[in-house]
Each structure stands twice: as structure tokens, then as C-alpha cells.
Fold each of these.
Amino acid sequence: MLKAYNDLLKAKSWAVNQQQYEIALLLDELQHEISKNSNSGFMPGISRLRRYFNLQSPLSAAGVYICGDVGRGKTMMMDLFFQSIHGVHKRRYHFHDFMQRFHTAMHNVNKSKDVSEPIVEALDSIVDNIAVLCLDELQVNNIADAMVMGRVFTSLIQRGVFVFMTSNRHPAELFKDGLQRERFLPFIDLVMEKMKVVVMGGEQDYRALKEFSLNKVYHYPLDHAGKQFLSTTQQMLIGWHEWQERSIKVSKNRELLLLQTYKYVAKFSFAELCVRPMGAADYMEICHNFSTVIIEGIPQMGADSHNEALRFITLIDCLYNSKTKLICTAEVPYDQLYTGKTNRFEFDRTISRLREMQTAEYLHYEKDDSAYA
């Protein structure tokens, strides 16, 4: 586990995050302990791990629950942990996929009349003979899941399954305003009493740009350090997730296909935004759908880049007016981006806005990320 984490940092040119590293150390010990216990009823017993988890008995090591905001590295740590475990039966699901499988299994079990423990029977068809179950992105937003989770996870623990879960929410915050929440509370109690709850993040938010200094949102020149800057920035913003294609509607009859998006972040090359025939309507729709835009490879523009310069001016106006955060790499400093004369007046305004968009005041502006898919 630890070697895999270090190899990943090296391959991606990512800086070491101290909290991730400490968790990797602990999960590395846990991974080795699991590998030594090939039977499904293992319980970790390494002293250092036990001190970290504050375990009084190996029997209380039911699992790990890692929570924190998006971009902290929860899924990355789970993936590395899962890939590092050998010699045991293991499974990894997205939480909603797991619960859908469970409800389907319950439906099939309930067709039989003589079943004394339907939940146990249903779980047999999903997790039979496994020692480790990883469930990513736990969130509870429907009553059907909420009403059975206490019994489902009690059954998992009773059969000796080590459960590793990640979530954006602390257990106490799950299903907070849900209907009949009192019936969900046994699950919260189970997690708090039997599992170690690890809160990732502390004061540092790896998605937020508030801590970015002036030279960390605008990088020049277009060199290897610039590529490294973008790689690190990507990890800070979207963590372990891959970019996704997404179409956004610009008008009644036209959609814009974006190749690199994840939730509230979109990444573009300069050519995608300013060489293609794009206009204010396109840029405003991008700003409406995303709170952070990454632009790679902004060149120095002159008389032979008239159209590109005009589109860039319009793009920056839209980003600025919507308070969208901009991260970019460029060929030259922002005050040297335009060498022409025709659009000098308009570009001077663009330079002023680029300067302001790097200030703490601008970066501290809280654009509502909850509105972004």
C-alpha cells in the first residue's frame, strides 16, 4: 500500500500530503495484516494500528470510515488499499451499486416463503466468503436504504467482513433531515462504536483555491514545470477522479461538447476555447455550469491572432463577471500576452482583469458549487 502510494506520487509528480501519507502508513500495516489472515474472520492486531484506531480488542476492528470533502483523496486511498490486498476474497462497489444489488437480492429472497433471515440470505448472494468490502461514496438519500442499513452492516460485521467506507459526510450528518431518521440511528451508532472514523482534510481543502498564492493560478512559460503545475492542480481539484465528457446546452438547437469536466471543474486547451468559433453565449454557459476553469497553453497574441485575441477578451470578461475562478498556463506573463495594436484598449482591460482574478479577494469569493453537476 505504502509503496503503491509513493509510486503514484512519483508517476503523477504530486507533492506528498502529510495526512494522506500517515493514513497510507496505517493502511499499509492493515493491508499486511489482512494478507496474513487469509480466512474471512480476520481482525487486525498490529500494535501501532491498534493505537491509532484506539482499539481495546481485536474484535472491535470492524472497519474504517473515511470522510471529508471531495478532493481530499478518499477514493484514491481506498483504491490503493484495495489493490494492495492479496490472498483474501475482496470486493469493491460504489455504495449505490451495492445497495441496489442488495435490494434486488432481497426482492428475490422474499419470493421464497420459508426464509427466517432474509437480510442474511440476501447478503449471501453478494458478499459470501469475502473478507474485505470497500464501499465508495456512501450517501443516504432515500428511505429504502436508510431503513435497512443498520441491519445490513450489523450482519456484515457479524460475519467477519472488514468494511472500508468513504463518504463526504461525517456519520452523524448522514440522512440528517430524513423521514423516520430514528430508524437510521442504529447504523450511525454502529459506525461510531465499531469502526474508526477518520476525518480527512483538517483546515486544508485540496479543491479550494483560497490558499493559492499569486503565482499558482497563472503559470508561465509553457514548460515542464507548467505541466507539473497542472497535474498538481488537477489532483487538488478533483482528486483521484478521471475527467468526463459532458454536453451543455447553449441554445434550443445547439449543445457544446466538453471533453474534460468533473463536477464543478472544466479543463480546456486555449485552442478549444479561442481558436474554434466560440462566442459569448458559449462562454457564459460554461461559466453557468462550472465554478473553476482551467486553460492550458495560452500563447502570446499579436496582429496575426486577431480573432483569437477577441475571443480571449470575451472569455475573460465572462469569467470575470461571473466570478469564475481561472487557472492557466501561458507562454508569457499576463501583461505581455498581446503585442498587437488594434485591440490594445480592450486588451488592457483584460490584463487588468487577469491581475484581479489572481488576488485573494477574488479567489475568496464563494461561488455556489452546489449548483454544479
Amino acid sequence: MNIDLDAEEKYEDENVEEIGRKITSISRKQANDAGTVDALLLLLSTQPLEMISLSHIYAFFIFTNSFSDEIGEMLYNRNPYISLIHLFDHQDFFIINRSAISMWNLLNNGVRIRPLTASHQQYQNMIACGGIKKLFILFKKYANKDIKISTSLCIGHLFRAKEITDQSMKREIISYLKMLKNERYQMAKNSAKYRLILLVHQKLNLNNKIFRKITNKKRQRF
């Protein structure tokens, strides 16, 4: 399935722009203290999918799209992944896409302060709730570039210092991350390189030739 979001999602984003301004006009922390995040997570995880709109996920996305360690820790403590996984079955592609990007933002929180050899702190939780399988299903289902990038980076991040035992997943995700190294979009390019380095710390993920090539460059700053 190939969906061009450039014009369509821009139009949809304009519909929820006002909600973004309202949330960011006050501090995210104040909004959290007022119970906004808890209310959003409850809604996203319990309401029938047809009752959940782009405005709802966009409101939550705004919290994930923050460089604040405090906000990241606050979201982490609420284990929001089940709510986002619930949305992967939505019929609205824009909601699915925004959910996948939100998950990437959450999983990326704190990455710089953890040793490269440390497994991801959410790995077991995501295994338990079937989150990794859901991400791979999305990766295979949609040809859209945004969702390919976000889901592949999520999976690569979750398997840091872990072996990807699903051979199809290993082959497709690593191949896509290698392709992203040539991406013009700098964030995606750098993120793909870093995710490959994380995967390299489990040698079984890559053949010896690729392993040597990447580890020789792993001191490069990303």
C-alpha cells in the first residue's frame, strides 16, 4: 500500500494545529500535573477505535515531541506503549502514522545516556505486549516512507545489544536501516547509522563483513 501523505497529512495537521497551540502555550509539565497525559492515555487505550480522532493522538504526540528529560521520564513512568499499540489497528492511516512516530519519540528518550552494550529498558515490556511484532507488521504493510522510517528505527532501537531471532525481521529491518544511511533527510540518516551500531553489539545480527565495516566506524559522531 502506497500512501502519499505530503499534502493530505498537512491538511489534517492544520485541523489540529489549534490543539497544539493550546497545549504548548502552557508548559507540558503543567498540563501533565493537571492530569492531561493520564486522561489522554486512558482515552487512547480504552475507547473504541472509531471514537479516537487525529486530534487525540496529535495532542499526545505533542508531549512526546519534547527534548525535556523531565517530560520524557514522566511519560516513561506511565508505560504509554499499550495505548499506542492499540492505535495500530485504527482504520485512519494518519492516526497510525502519528502513533508510530510518537512511539519512536518515546523509545528514543534517554538513548544518549545509556551504554551502547545495554539492552533497551522497554524491550521486555514490548515483547510482553506484542509491540515488536505489531511494529514489524506495520513496516511490511505500508510503503509510506514516514512509517517505514519510524517503525524500522523503533525495532532497531528495541533490539540494541539483542539478537533479532526472526530471520525475516532481521533481514528486512537491517536492509532498510542500511538503505537509510544514504537518506537525504539528515535525522533519518544519522538515526539509522546509530541504530546499526546498537545492533552491531549483538554480532549475530550482522554477517562478519558488515560487522567489521560498521564497527570500524562506530566512533564516528552521530
Amino acid sequence: MTRRALTPASGDEPLKEALRRAQLKPTVQMVATLRVLARAEGEWLGGEDIYRQLMMSGQPVSLATIYRVVKKLVSCGIVVRMWQEQYGSRRALYCQRADEPAPAGLPPGGLRIRDSDANVWIPVGDKNKCEILLDALRQCGISPGHRCEIEIDGMPDLHPAKHEEPQC
């Protein structure tokens, strides 16, 4: 089997620019990994999925390199990681972060929570709850204006009944 070196694809400039904005050097491996995630269009992929797609496209790269690159992309916020539990084991899945505008009606300084299972944003309308959550985030070193993710595990069912509109 003949292996080709990783080569830049046309249309990679926005990916390279996103990496530069995150103060990362746009290496060929990093751009190729981000390209696979961008082409997934919001679908969650595991490291092995990314590796397989790059290998099938003739771009040799090691699985260790994929995980090293994805770890950097997650730490700078370009990629989001979530854990999938299945058959008693956990698997990390990755997705390129979507630059979503604030939803209509979210006031400046407003707060919303994403329910990943239901794929909906829930605005926090109660000012006291909003202040408590913002204060907790500040205490964790997260400054206003930054996006963050909070993972809650082991909580009772928080999903409202299907007929109710989610709100906090």
C-alpha cells in the first residue's frame, strides 16, 4: 500500500484561521483532523472514527496523533467533547463547536443552559437563579462572556414532561 503525505485541501483557510485565533499552529495534522470534524456537520465522532476517515482518504496519521490533536482542540474550545456511556464503558466523542448566535430574546448578560439530550437551549429567566449560577462560574474562574459546558451526572430525571416548555 502506498501512503501519501498529509496535504492541505482547498477551502482549509477558515480552519487555519480558527486555529490561529486560538493561538494554535495550524499543522497539517491539526487541519486534517479539524477538516474531518467540520465535514461531519455537527455529528459526534470518536477518535477512531476520525482516524479511519483520514486513513481512508489516504492521509497516514497515527491514532495517538489524533488524540493529541483533539485534546489540544478541546482545550482551546474549537472542539467539544462529550462522554457516551454504552454497555458499561465510556467513549469520548468530539464535535466541532458551532458558533451559535445568542437566541432571540436573550438579553445581554443573560444565561441559558443547553440540554444535550433534548438538543434545546433553556433560558434561565429567574434573576436570582441567574446570579447564583454566574457567581458559581466566577468562583471557578470563568469570566463573563465566555462559553462553558457543565456536565451533570447522577442527577434525577431533569427532563420536563413532553407537553411542557422547558424553562429554568
